[in-house]
Protein 1
Amino acid sequence: MSDENVLFQVLDTHLDTGMRGIPVGTCKTSFVDPVDGVHYAGYPIADLSNVDPEDAAFLLFNKDMPNENESRMWKETLAECSEIPSGSLDIFDSIGIGQGHPMDWLSMGIMSLARAEKENDISSDAVNLIAWMPELMARLFMSRGGRGDIVTPSNPSLGMVGNFVSMLGMKGEEAIRAERILRSFLVLHMDHGGGNLSTFAGKAVASSRSSLFASIASAMNALSGPLHGRANQSCLEFVQKVGTSDPDEVEAFVRGELAAKRPIFGFGHAVLRAEDPRATVQMKIGEEVCPDDPLFATVRTLREVAPRVLGENPKISNPNANVDLVSGTLLYNAGFRKPEYYTTFFGWARVIGISAQIVDERKSRGGKGVPIYRPKYLARDQPVRRL
Ligand code: NMX
Ligand code: MLT
């Protein structure tokens, strides 16, 4: 028997399964327990949901929470680096108002910043990109909407979320609510172990010693798929379509989607085997900020009904709510009424975790960095032939 045939026999249950469960590397920023969910450098995510997003970013890069002094200095560094290199985002003026998906804009925006890459200093690139994200996001929103420029000039002393909200021109109660929701959204979405698709894609690209910007743009492209980050958009769209919180009607809707072979967005997970703690935290936030919102009422019912219906299919490993079930409804209540933008917030958060993981991989092996990714694929149905 050939070596390949032996491998086929030994590995058959692992082949063509999206590499599910196959260890391929190590991760220092976070791990995902199938029941207790993601932990950032050992801290369960629920314990972190109210920390400053900047402090959560510090944790992912430094593997420890900052003390007061470290937190202040890190925030000052981000503020000092926050000015976007001039002309970088001019590409937004040429795409065409409202054309294409916002995730494509995010990816192109990040690529356009590559011109400011620091030679052989990926850590500085990571800090710069994180510092530029609030303005990049605000410019993306404004240019796509045809506004051309941000409403209020960037003021990084407001913090990354406060600055973004202010650049969009949000004020008073509206701004306070948006900030409350976005701050926890960013912290909850920053990282999810090493093997989720966008992180894996970003690190794979980075392993060829591509720039941080090229690697993160690739990660954003992976995140833009509806089975991954774009599930938050799809989920809110279908919550809107359900249009009721009546359990029988919601159940009929879920069964109809399954019969039409469409995914039930916001449920299921490749690794988790219980309700995602990030969904549990967001449900609590929803009960606090928008308990009477009809969309939130639909989500509440979906959370009760869908796991029972999905659980009837033994193939589905986890019928419970994932991170995307509630996040769209919260963003809607934060004042962001267009679901197609929701994955850009997920992207903003993941820029931080994926950058931290790329920096770790570049520093590994005594500074040599991880070897270029090159998994093995077995040949199928390819007998050797001659012309
Ligand atoms: N709705 C319908 N079918 C599902 C669902 C769901 N929510 N979850 C799993 N399945 C199907 C899945 O498509 C697969 O079918 P097949 O064998 O015909 O390919 C089967 O059940 C077994 O899948 P699992 O092993 O349970 O899950 P897998 O690891 O393959 O996929 C997801 C994980 C997250 C892609 C899947 O659960 C899904 O499509 N969920 C809905 C989309 C979603 O909410 N994605 C967001 C995930 C979190 N994130 O942000 O990335
Ligand atoms: C998540 O945040 O749930 C992910 O990025 C998906 C995963 O971990 O596979």
Protein 2
Amino acid sequence: MDWGLKNRLARIIKPETGHTVMLAVDHGYFLGPTSGLEIPGKTIKPLLPYADSLMLTRGVLRTSVDPNNDIPIVLRVSGGNSIVGDDLSNESITTNIEEAIRLNVCAMTLSIYVGSKYEHQTLINLSELVNEGEKYGIPVLAVTAVGKEMGRGAKYLALACRIAAELGAHFVKTYYCEGFEKVVKTCPVPIIIAGGKKIPEHDALKLAFNAIQKGACGVDMGRNIFQSNHPVAMIQAVRSIVHKKASVDKAFELFNSKIKMQSVS
Ligand code: 5RP
């Protein structure tokens, strides 16, 4: 791995802890104005001091993030599908490497749909993106997307993560599952988990805790942070688990204490 690529990765996965808290706000690329992200800039701004990187599309980056900010950017470069289209897996590369370089990104990301109708196309997207990224020292994060018909069990996720790593992804984003250790053990690159649909805060903290305990390198959480009634308190609680080894109860205490502090200030 060359120096630039390692350096970019180190800006996302913090060398001090070996972990990362990424904030995912790219949902609009196929979901449109997702609840909590209707005005992306308003959602993102108060969370930035607590995120190690921001995962988003070029459209939201250009319009909704101040370029004077030094937050590492993980740029979503795939799309061309929508929640109302006929097949979510029909995804292509939407943003070229020159644009990623102009935007000074730390990593590029795309989804792969293993087991879907467009599996081949999305795996070739990944391989070609890795080829481009490696020319310029930009790492690639592969997201193992799960459509309605696809599994979420350890066997399926281990298959998808391993394929992503074999094709050259430098890190992989997937879902937490029963038997998650197996997914981590059989994937030779770092694994980050998505948060998934909004669940109660204590449950989301437990999810983050379990994932880290079982070998995840971090979280790339979206809805469980920005759809919380207290997103700033929530991201700080998640950070305490990922970077400070807090227990679920300690992190939840921190969440509640931050809410109290915010209500008096
Ligand atoms: C969609 C994505 C999203 O960024 C990610 O899954 C969203 O995070 P969360 O599930 O925590 O809302 O990659 O393919």
